[in-house]
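Q: For a teaching session next week I want to show students how multiple molecules come together into a single three-dimensional assembly. I've collected the sequence lines for a complex. Could you give me the predicted structure tokens for the whole thing so I can convert them for display?
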Amino acid sequence: MQQVPALKIDGITIGQSLAIIEYLEETRPTPRLLPQDPKRRAQVRMISDVIASGIQPLQNLSVLKQVGQENQLTWAQKVMRSGFNALEQILRSTAGKYCVGDEVSMADLCLVPQVANAERFKVDLTPYPTISRINKTLLALEPFQVSHPCRQPDTPPELRA
Amino acid sequence: MQAGKPILYSYFRSSCSWRVRIALALKSIDYETVPINLIKDGGQQFSEEFQALNPMQQVPALKIDGITIGQSLAIIEYLEETRPTPRLLPQDPKRRAQVRMISDVIASGIQPLQNLSVLKQVGQENQLTWAQKVMRSGFNALEQILRSTAGKYCVGDEVSMADLCLVPQVANAERFKVDLTPYPTISRINKTLLALEPFQVSHPCRQPDTPPELRA
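A: Of course. Below is the structure for the complete assembly, covering every listed component.
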């Protein structure tokens, strides 16, 4: 797919972030990233897909290139506002401390990076209080900090934490 | 409260709805269809009533076991977990990863970039070129992946969620006049799958909301 991420693990290479995460969940099951109950699992997957299929692909680098430089900001903001409108509504019925109930799940792993994208494109988050609250709670957790774009091997010096 | 049949909110031509229809047929799950016309009345998916049911204002949505699930792959995985036979995902985790990867290449990497709402934004004079470019790019990658995963079907010799994603996407490609000659593996698998009954009964040409002129 000529895309990141790709994970080389256990003798295979897997592309597509959610396929990778589900593989990790099935082979390294603790701590859980998906709830035990099938209905809650469906909610986690639905929220993850809203982000991973419904929002991010429409504002990724290759699409923005095709939209043209003068249209990029407007396009990206429109895509994210539209997606966050729907997401905010969904989360109001599924969220506890996190996206689905009170345990961190794959949905939360999708939320934080998408909110970071929204901030980068100057999307006003005021209309999305549930998204904002959950994002803030998650960013306080260590796994979300060590993995942050500002702390990676390839983070440019001027953006490094 | 008596549990009724599951209800699928579907548009005959929606490739995402077709994926779920195939899953329901494969698992012999009897259901009711509530057609949502994506074009009529400015798009019935934008009605307040439907928005309350599915905030993404998209099809498919499945009302089942007291909940409503949106997003075709989330629906299919729920069906797999609650009605596990026949399987739609292999037992082996590495093969499951391949099935999910191929499904996501289509469901995240190709289809969203050529769906109705994006095409509207691209503008009518650009739509064909845009859609073809998106699909060619995606099929280039998919063809390469399938060469190492495919047997009779996308992953080995059992029908999986990946196959449910493939057939509707090929139908979209044909609708947008994408030449499939560069993709022999995709074409072969698509042909094999279309011969199976679940792929036929769920076909856009055989739905309750199929317009008369397109009906099989």
